[in-house]
């Protein structure tokens, strides 16, 4: 009797437990709305116990599958297994799903991000017999994964010259949604338009794209692309295309795999043409004149460095340089196309013995020295100049001040030597410069106010226009003080000389416990001391020392016997 009641109560309690037990609900949170094949995605699973009992450990599945609805897991796709902890009534647990891979062969279109409890008992996992809420799914749209390289010419040249070079760049953009393969391609200039038409392209610039991320781009410069001299003038094309020839390079999407831009080629050549400018119409015997030689490159290429001569001669016309008054040799240097270079000829002496007649200021390529121009037209120029004698030249300067007057820079005999044949008309000046150490440090001199004058770094002789003032200027030299400007006014037949003596800045040198003063012979130096070397140094004079006939002198009693903060310097005294 009691046994039966116990069984009845046991059955009643079992029925009661079927009503009051755990009940798990599963939700897919933050699922991806769309994804590409081969892409990594993620979402979150939330499990909530909506029952009245504590839940046991329950196993469940999640993944992206093509079938909708519960118990639809028959798929080769990646399926993830999770197990809940024991959840109290109303308690939730989150399970993040990260780095889930959408298969590269996943079907395109709608799939489902799903979660569901196991429907078959397994070892260690309990089942939820209340099936309401035991699964959830959200749709996801799968799109094709692809890469697609697009080519664009950046700053392509629209004009080119044979025998020269041009530059451009290539921008390669990946318009796909996945990183590209490493693709080989090439660029060049050819006469034919269109993809795959690379006939008669003389040079190829080869490249490899490397792997370009989706939406990314890279720029490949083409620098100094040589247009051969044999290229046909006219319209050609700057081109770029994937190199399909090896068979290893391809792009699954052909659109944009080729780009081109028209370029107009013209024949390349250089052509120097000479002209005389700023030439005086008349010149006085024994005076100085000046003019300009303009050299223009009328071609399409930068010219070679061409040597040429200019001067005054008796005869007009090319290759007629007999009876000239002196030749000035010049070099054009490389001249860019359609550019003019001007060469000033200053201080050109008209000999007092020149014929009093019309002569010619001339310029011509120096063929005798091996220089040439592929086009002979314009390689010669001349303008007339009437030479005459100033009737008052015995009592006045040969020519009044003018823009072309400068001392003539000739290596004439120094003062005391036999003067040249026209020496009685001019003053003679010998300018020296020294010492040699200053010259090695950049010492030089020139005539002030004459922008076209030469610069001299050695002793030089000059013929001076009588009665006119000329000023010498000495340039700076490192560690030396340059001489001040000096002005000369010489009469006919005067002979003078001047030494531009640079004075060395003072220098102290400590050698084997002995302090030495180093400077210029004949100069006086002030020895100064300071306890510091910073911006607040206070230099005080100690004594003065003259260098009489030597440039190096020992200073006794100044070298400190022990370490000290005393600093010494030598300063050139004025």
Summary, kept brief:
It contains two helices and 38 strands. The protein has 574 residues and is mainly β.
Task: Average the pLDDT over all residues and give the rounded result.
Answer: 84
Shape: elongated
**Structural classification:** mainly beta
Strand content of the residues, in percent?
Answer: 35-45%
pLDDT < 50 stretches: 1-18, 391-405, 411-423
The oligomeric status of these chains comes to: single chain
**Major sheet strand order:** 2-8-7-4-5
Note down, in words, how this protein is organized:
- The chain has two helices and 38 strands.
- A five-stranded mixed beta sheet has the order 2-8-7-4-5, with no helix packed on it. The protein has a five-stranded mixed beta sheet with strand order 10-16-15-12-13, with no helix packed on it.
- With 574 residues, the protein is mostly beta strands.
- A hairpin with a 2-residue loop joins strand 33 and strand 34.
Spell out the key features of this protein.
single chain; 574 residues; mainly beta; five-stranded mixed β-sheet; 2 helices; 38 strands; elongated; disordered N terminus
């Amino acid at each position: 009797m009691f046994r039966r009641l116990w069984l009845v109560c046991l059955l009643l309690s079992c029925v009661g437990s079927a009503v009051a037990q755990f009940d798990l609900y599963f939700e897919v949170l933050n699922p991806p709305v769309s994804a590409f094949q081969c892409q990594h995605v993620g979402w979150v699973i939330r499990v909530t116990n909506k029952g009245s009992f504590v839940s046991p450990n329950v196993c469940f599945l999640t993944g992206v599958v093509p079938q909708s609805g519960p118990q639809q897991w028959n798929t080769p796709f990646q399926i993830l297994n999770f197990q809940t902890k024991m959840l109290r009534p109303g308690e939730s647990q989150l399970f993040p799903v990260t780095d889930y891979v959408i298969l590269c062969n996943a079907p395109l279109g709608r799939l489902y991000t799903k979660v569901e409890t196991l429907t078959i008992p397994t070892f260690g996992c309990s089942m939820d017999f209340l099936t309401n809420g035991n699964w959830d799914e959200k749709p996801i749209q799968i799109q094709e994964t692809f890469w697609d390289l697009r080519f664009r010419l950046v700053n392509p040249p629209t004009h080119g010259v044979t025998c020269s070079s041009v530059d451009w760049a290539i921008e390669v953009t990946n318009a796909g949604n996945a990183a590209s393969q490493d693709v080989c391609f090439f660029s060049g200039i050819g006469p034919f338009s269109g993809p795959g038409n690379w006939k008669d392209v003389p040079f190829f610039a080869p490249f490899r794209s490397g792997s370009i991320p989706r939406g990314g781009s890279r720029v490949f410069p083409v620098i100094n692309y040589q247009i051969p001299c044999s290229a046909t003038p006219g319209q050609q094309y700057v081109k770029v295309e994937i190199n399909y020839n090896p068979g290893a390079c391809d792009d699954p999407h052909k659109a944009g795999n080729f780009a081109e831009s028209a370029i107009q080629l013209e024949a390349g050549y250089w052509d120097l043409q000479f002209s005389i400018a700023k030439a005086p119409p008349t010149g006085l015997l024994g005076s100085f004149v000046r003019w300009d030689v303009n050299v223009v490159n009328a071609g399409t290429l930068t010219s070679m460095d061409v040597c040429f001569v200019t001067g005054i001669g008796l005869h007009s016309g090319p290759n007629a340089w007999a009876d000239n008054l002196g030749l000035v040799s010049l070099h054009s240097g490389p001249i860019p196309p359609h550019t003019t270079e001007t060469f000033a000829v200053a201080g050109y002496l008209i000999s007092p013995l020149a014929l009093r007649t019309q002569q010619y200021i001339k310029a011509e390529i120096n063929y005798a020295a091996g220089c040439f121009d592929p086009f002979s037209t314009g390689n010669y120029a001349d303008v007339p100049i009437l030479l005459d004698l100033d009737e008052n030249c015995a009592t006045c300067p040969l020519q009044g001040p003018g823009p072309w007057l400068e001392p003539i820079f000739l290596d004439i005999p120094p003062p005391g030597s036999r003067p040249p044949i026209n020496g009685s008309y001019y003053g003679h000046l010998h300018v020296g410069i020294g010492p040699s150490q200053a010259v090695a440090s950049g010492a030089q001199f020139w005539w002030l106010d004459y922008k076209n004058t030469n610069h001299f770094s050695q002793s030089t002789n000059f013929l001076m226009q009588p009665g006119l003032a000329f000023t010498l200027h000495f340039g700076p030299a490192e560690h030396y003080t340059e001489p001040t400007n000096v002005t000369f006014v010489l009469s006919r037949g005067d002979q003078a000389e001047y030494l531009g003596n640079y004075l060395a800045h003072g220098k102290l040198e400590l050698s084997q416990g002995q302090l030495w003063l180093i400077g210029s012979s004949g100069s006086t130096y002030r020895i100064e001391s300071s306890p510091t070397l910073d911006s607040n140094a206070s230099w005080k004079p100690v004594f003065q020392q003259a260098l009489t006939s030597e440039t190096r002198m020992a200073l006794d009693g100044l070298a400190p016997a022990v370490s000290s903060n005393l600093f010494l310097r030598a300063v050139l005294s004025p």
